[in-house]
Amino acid sequence: MVKYNVTIQYSNKLKHSSNGDMEDEAPLSGQNIETMSMGNNTVQLGSSSTVDQLPFDDLQTPSKSFNDSLASTVPSISNSLFFKETAHSNSLIKWTTLNQIYSLVSAYGGPTCILPTKSYFVLGTSKGALLIFNFKEFLQTILLPQISDKETLLRSAVKTIAVATDGTYLAAAYQSGDVFIWNLNLKTTNEDIPFFENRNEPLSSVNSLDAILHITYHKDSDINGMGFLHNRHTALIVSDSSSRITFHNGFRNSFWNLTYSSKDILSLSPNEKLFCSMMALPPRDSNFKSGNLLAILTNINFVILSTSPHPEILFQENLHDAKSNTTEGPIYNSSIAWSTDRSQIAYCINKTVFLFGLSNQVTPLEFVITRRTSTFTESILSLQWLNPRLLGILTISHQFLIVDTKTQFEIILKIDLLVHDLLIPPDKHFAFNNNRIFLLTLYGFKIGSFVTWSDITLSNVQKGDYMKALSYIELFLRPNFAIPTLLRLEPDQKEKETQLLEPFYNLALATQRFLLKKRDANYDNIFKLVSLVVRVLDSFHLKDTTSTLKISLNSFLEQALEFFDSNTIGLYYEVLSNLIIEGYIRSVSAPIFKNLISYFSSIKRFSTIQELIIILDSKTLDIDLAVKLCKEFHLSTILIYLWNKVFLDYISPLVDYLHLLAGDSNQCMLFDYTTKKIEYENIFTYLSFILLGKQYPENIPIMPQELQDKIKMDIYGVLLNGTLIEWPKGSGEKVHTVKNSQDEPAFPYLHLLLNYDIKSLLSLFNKVFEDSLFNISSEFEQDSNGRIIRLDRQYIIDLLLDILKDLSDDRKKSQLAVFVALNVAKFPQFISLSNNLLEEVISNILLCHDNSSSEMSQIAIEAVIPIYAPKDPELFILEMKERNFNGVLFSFYRHSKRYFEWATLSLDSESTIETYGTPLIDVLKLIIAKTNPNSLEHSKLVELFTTKMELILSTLGTTASVKLFHQLDSSLHKKVLLIPSLRLQQKYLEDLFSFYPAYGTTDSIIKEKYIELSCTLKDNQDLIPWIESFDLTNIDVGKMNVLLSSSDNYEALAVLHFKLRDYSKTVDDLLKCINSEFLGKKSSQQVVQRHLEYAIHTCVLSGDEEAANWTKLITSLIVIYENANIADHEKEICNILLQEVFIRLSATKQSSAAAGSNFFWMILGKVLEDPNVILLKTQHLKKLLGDIFSAYDIEKCMADLILNILEKASLSVVHAYSDLLKEGWSIRNDECDVCGKKIWGVEISDLTSVFWEELRRKETIYTIGAENYRIAVFKCHHGYHTKCLENMGQSNTTYKCLMCQRLDV
């Protein structure tokens, strides 16, 4: 730990001075700063009165976007981190741009720093002047960096501004290192100011003020910290980049001139660099015994220093220890900040913040009581305390984070300042004071004011978003809400509840009234409101409140009841019932509870009534009471349920619905004339339940099945009746559908439902057509009384077709025709229509031209295509094209066998599988399979495929395209050569010869193009195996040679020449490969070894050229070895390769053309006689040959040892092999392969066996005619008469197999 020597000296004249100094001069009224603030600690300046107003009251009127953003954001205000999102944080700030400031500041070179106060702000400029503005953009005073008019004005940028404790003195530090102090109480002048030499208009009304003290001690140094001593006006502590921390003491000399003395109070080690320092604010708590605290941050230590009553280090921390839990590295950014009440201090290094809790005991051992750290995601530029709880953090990306120091540095607000284009560096052009943010931007001076809680609430109320206003208050009431003071709320929870209780209660009632006045008042809004009120009022400590208002949950519920009228009271009771059922409301008053059952009766909520009765009372209603209740409150659903379930009457509800639809509600038995129209629509719901065999509205099956079927037939008997029915039966009263009985249509009830809502009726029929009841019935049948006892789908379709003819509405006709078409196609085994009827159906479908029905129309027509044949196909196609019914055309072309049109339509589609549900490849395969190769349509398809070839290749891929083109017409293969993509051509031809290898024999052009593309486009990894496997019969090998030579692909050339058995050229190509490897930038021993193995293998197989190839191989390697352009490690590789070659040469079994046992020496001699080798240096060649022969001797000794071991170990194997040879080889054929006569097996001459035994015994048994019966069988199992072999020109001493040229006989 570094120990500091602290010295400080005060002037006796200034230490306790209150008279005879600058401080005694009377302030000028109206010219002084009213208040000056450091953080949130406001002090009075002079005698001017302060203005009690909101922080943004004296600013320009905010734009409308502020209120819009605050009220339009849909909140999910569920926790205290709601404002952490940037959008929500920004909604708390009201930004104002003071447009005239920059026009005034520009004359002074532009702003460089800012010091804000409650009513004024001070701007430092790049030319040295300090400008004091009020918030109405009036320039109050200009502070000039000169002692008097005689002194030259300093033209240097202002870097730091500090204010004395009482706000009457101000100091500024400059980039030049100068420091000036001004007495703001002195008289100002309005003379012309030199800085305005180039101004357009004189500003004679602007007051200017000269400095009273000029400190030059830090000249040419970068000042990084400055502050007044408490209760002193001319005493400063200043720190700079030269690591000096200096106390400057202003005093008057004997001539009463103000001067100063300077004393360095801290000595730093040579390797220690001072980053910044900061004086603490004056203590508000009298318990603090120290008036002057100084924090210092260097690259090694963080120090807190007390300057009074005597210098003393209170705390010191080594940064290397402090950074133990953070990322090590250089320090790029740093800052210090004292809390407003001096109870905490924070400093930051790069991304990490260190926070210390301080005690009021200013002693080294007791001063720091807590220490915490937190690391953020990006580097931190500066720290600013907003209040004792909230710390502001400005990051390098211009994000202003407000963190809660009472938690683990939880980010409460995140304000994006990047959008405001701050001047650089941002920490010098940003300040926070009195709940306001001050920004110096590229385009203007901006002030962002935090709105109050009432502003937030009122803004949402004005926008009509009462619920959001209440949600905000709910958020504010949370004990963990961290920013109450920013929003002008009491920090104490109970005081905050007292502050918000009555506003919340009154606003909740106002919200209730507002929601009910709105036309869109609904259950959701009322439920949200009441549940929110329940939550909030339960959280209040109501017993502790001093409010005179009697506030409770029941009082709210009863008072809110007064706002509801007969039209809206239902919403309220519905909300209350749900909250009771869910357990949110524990109790309600008796009047509210009494009316709940009546309410749910009035809104037809039988299930809710039943549920409430179960919850609140275990007794159930009797039938008479239930029916009376349902009729009294028009509970039609419950009444229908009772009528069906208890009385087993399913017709009366249907008849009542028909009366309602016919406008004859007086005839209703269950319903009365007050029933609203919306109830009429329930007829389809009711019919759907009953006709599907479900109890209405329980959705459970009607049992037993016989009863279910009977009820269905009774309903169908009404709906499908051709005439009016009598109901009740025996009453003589007919159920009419129109007022004039003469106008009653046939099938009146079906007509009535079709005219009322054809869409719902057809939807109903779609569902009931799935009923298995229609599967059992085979035909329509009625009993003697006209009651339907059997019913099928065909009858209903025929009935609908008859009605279709009478309809006048084109839309309804189209909808009905669509239904018929879909069901004819869906149930072909049950519904059958003639082609003429289908023609009429399709014509009716096409009556409707709007886009909304287009899709269903197309689906319907497409469904009947398999069973429909248009009278005029061309006209039909034209109509479908005009409607863009491609799905219909796709199906029609397929079923009408118009394969060319079908293919054209499919190829023009972006995706047949998405548009038509069929992959394109399947469509084209089917088209080709169905097309006659000799037809005109086939020719048109070939032409179409030629035109669309590139599209087909890119869509289907080459593999599928090859098979497709080959199936259609093999001439298409050649047309592939016309497409521009060579790689696509090569891939296509690759697949073509893979699937159809014989195709190349019939089309030499295709094959030549395939070879050319393969040699040009394939890489060696694919090219070499291709050459090895490719059939070179009838191939222009010379062209391949030219193609490969032009690309210097000698490895591929070697493979080609090897396949052609041109072993000499093979060796030449491989030597070029080896030579290029050694002469390349980086040789690969593995690649060279591979080429060498191939070359040795080629030499062994070279036959008559074997000696020449061996000589060529060894000579070339020696020349490479002696090449001066290759590196030493490459020479070593070459040496090893030569040793390998010689060893392999010595072990090679030479051919008959070789020089017998002298083959090795013959090759060596030829190598040494080669002119290229003769020219080599003898000493190099001697060393090389020495290494080769050494390796050869070692290899020979090893071979001899292995041979001896093998000879001794395999003696028995050799003897066994010899015995087997005496037995002879087995024969493959029993006939001579020359003359065709029998040489073995049944029917051969007995002499053959005799001669075989003679040979086995090695003795003569029989000699007469032996030459005609002797045979030779080779190891390859081919057999011949020896006489026949001799006739073919072979010697009787050495026979060869005529087929295999083998000698093993």
Description:
- It is a single chain.
- The protein is an alpha+beta fold and 1305 residues long.
- The chain starts with 11 loop residues before the first helix and ends in an 18-residue tail after the last helix.
List keywords for this structure.
1305 residues, 37 strands, disordered N terminus, alpha+beta, four-stranded antiparallel sheet
Supply Rg. 54 Å
What is the 3D form? flat
Please state the average pLDDT score.
77
Strand tally is: 37
Helical fraction equals: 40-55%
Beginning-to-end CA distance, first to last residue: 102 Å
Q: Helix and strand layout, with pairings?
A:
Blueprint lengths: L11 H4 L19 E4 L2 E4 L19 H9 L13 H5 L2 E6 H7 L5 E6 L3 E6 L4 E5 L4 E6 L13 E6 L5 E6 L4 E5 L23 E4 L2 E3 L7 E6 L6 E6 L4 E8 L5 E9 L7 E6 L13 E6 L2 E6 L5 E7 H4 L11 E5 L5 E6 L2 E7 L9 E8 L4 E6 L4 E6 L3 E6 L5 E7 L13 E4 L2 E5 L4 E6 L2 H10 L3 H11 L16 H25 L5 H17 L13 H9 L7 H13 L8 H13 L3 H11 L6 H10 L3 H12 L3 H11 L20 H10 L2 E2 L4 E2 L3 H15 L28 H21 L4 H4 L4 E2 L5 E3 L2 H14 L3 H17 L8 H11 L8 H11 L8 H11 L2 H10 L3 H10 L3 H4 L4 H11 L5 H12 L1 H8 L1 H11 L3 H4 L6 H14 L3 H4 L1 H14 L2 H10 L7 H10 L3 H10 L3 H17 L5 H16 L5 H16 L6 H20 L11 H11 L1 H4 ...
Parallel strand pairs: 7-11
Antiparallel strand pairs: 1-2, 3-31, 4-5, 5-6, 6-7, 8-9, 9-10, 10-12, 13-14, 14-15, 15-16, 17-18, 18-19, 19-20, 21-22, 22-23, 23-24, 25-26, 26-27, 27-28, 29-30, 30-31, 32-33, 34-35, 36-37
Helix pairs in contact: 2-6, 6-7, 7-8, 7-9, 8-9, 9-11, 11-12, 12-13, 14-15, 17-19, 19-22, 21-22, 22-23, 22-24, 24-26, 26-27, 27-29, 27-30, 29-32, 31-32, 32-34, 34-36, 36-38, 37-39, 39-40, 40-41, 40-42, 41-42, 41-43, 42-43, 42-44, 43-46
